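Q: My labmate handed me this sequence with no annotations at all. I'd like to see what the chain might look like in three dimensions before we decide whether it's worth expressing. Could you predict it?
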Amino acid sequence: MDLTKAQLLQIDNYVYVSGIKYYDVRTEIVDHFANILEEKLDKTPDLDFKKEIQNIHRNFSDRGFSKLLKEKTSAVQKQFYKMFFKHLITFFKLPKIIISGALFYVLYLLMNRFQDKENFFAIISYLCFAVVMLLFFSLFINRKKKEIFLKTNMNNTFFLFVNFGSTYFVNTATFRTHESFLNPVHNIIHLTVFVLLILSFWSCYHVYKLNKKEVQKQYPKVIV
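A: Here is what I predict for the chain of 224 residues:
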């Protein structure tokens, strides 16, 4: 017996209230529940639907949905890091290494136009912070109107990395001494770190956009 839309919605609401906020994970669980309930309804048409949902949940695993969510999250994070490093490495191979070299060279020329190198690194530190805020705003604006997908949820991966990287860079600029800013080698190392940070941000955002495109293709009727 096929379930009605109302029954599917009832299962979906139950799974959501049980802690599964991600639409893609929730859909998978709802499908699993629906298959079991359809078989049971074929045998017992007057089945207590709500009670049976709870029974299936209890039999799902010894930890309910938490084990499945943990496994799904781990798999998505591993895939994210794999895609991230794969894309980052391309900036050190032809033809993208030209972009990396050009970016470093342009910043190097700009740095040399500053007599006080401390001012230069202070400016790019503020720019780094501004980029983080723009990314945060662009990814979370109108989020309440959208479904949350595990695959595109970068709170625990993308923004953790972005915040760590930007904080590290800003702190590095803050704690460098005046003598350190007079040392060309120290400045080149600092500039290299900044370029790596930019390329890493770029790679993270690229992976996010790829995942978002894949989710949109898989769920064309859902706002991502």
